[in-house]
Amino acid sequence: MRKKKGEVGSIHAGFILNREEDIPVVLDTSLVVSEHLAILAGTGSGKSYLAGVIVEELLKPYNRACVLVFDPHGEYHTLREVEGIQEFGENNYKPSVRIFSRDDIKLRLSELEYDELVNLLPNLSEKMEATLNSIYREMSEEHFTADSLIERLEELRDSESLAESTANGLIWRIRRYLKDMDLVDDYRHIDLKTLLKPGQASILQLTEFSDLEQEILVSAMMKRILKARINAEKGNPGERVDYPVFVVIEEAHRFASRDSRSYDVLRTILSEGRKFGLGVCLISQRPSKIDSDILSQCMTQIIMRIVNPADQENIKKSVESIGKEMIDELPGLTKGQALVAGVAVNTPILMRVRKRLTSHGGMSKNAPAEWRRWTEKSESKGIAVKKDMRLFWDED
Ligand SMILES: Nc1ncnc2c1ncn2[C@@H]1O[C@H](COP(=O)(O)OP(=O)(O)OP(=O)(O)O)[C@@H](O)[C@H]1O
Ligand SMILES: [Mg+2]
Fold it and tell me: Are 225 and 262 in contact (CB under 8 A)?
């Protein structure tokens, strides 16, 4: 292994599988971060748990990374526990984990690209689209708002330079979709300076956003971060982020498939992000849906239990360093066991993931325990629970 456990720039992900003594598996942080990572496995195999381990390692004093997590299922907030665990601190260093939820996550309307704006307004006729395109170009220098777009359309309509039906169709859609959409705001904009800092993991909770909003958000944020990194590296004016950034994308098949609205930017970042210190970790239970050009750019791969033959086939295609014998091992792995391959390790290696230091926010549900907790709560509120049911619940 290239790095030792606890060394600056190391990620202690787990231990070599099937060995009597604990031999740590240690990844090289700079290679994981700059050359992208993929965590692929069937559902419930331990992908998110492992991603939590990796973020923990990145927040340790020997990494102090700047991490952003797109969290569609609200599983990563428990990482906040690092703030109270002693081994995460050192001298003046203390990591922080910030949670951003629906009310904190805003994209300013005038910062959206034309394509993103169009995506937010359904069923536009050709005429409506052409009109929107020209007023977008006309107004893109200013900070336009939903109301100023509407005003401009009304002006054009009233001066008869625009057909009434086109103008009204657009005005209705802007009122109905843009004004109501929480993600898009006339003025507020999530601030990259608050979001991205070394020694901080920022968790963007996407639970309450629709799939469309999530894709637009990933697309718009990733574009902004890439631009800010390029500005910093090239000394260009404009928004800057002065240090490398590592972004974790859960459910990556939704954001990195060819028909996703975030596809183009992810493709660019996966092929060029390395030059600008913008690394990505893609996590997915459906690797066959991730575009293979994107997947093949993840130079470190951690693969856990996969039974589905189509997914195995896709992995074989995109991960050259793994031989057939290794692929044959995949269905036999159990929860928390993984195959690690690629640049961050010397040769492919089987590992068991180390225990989390914080709790895992995506615990599989223990249905009987939850039902029981629920009925006990009802009882204490004075709602009767049938006696014969209690007999069933009581055996622990
Ligand atoms: N290394 C591990 N040690 C102990 N428990 C684990 C480990 N990995 C996963 N688990 C447990 O297994 C369950 C599923 O894990 P996890 O949420 O990470 O799966 P997943 O692969 O992300 O699934 P999904 O595809 O549904 O998101 C959780 O209850 C988790 O606590
Ligand atoms: Mg998961």
Answer: no
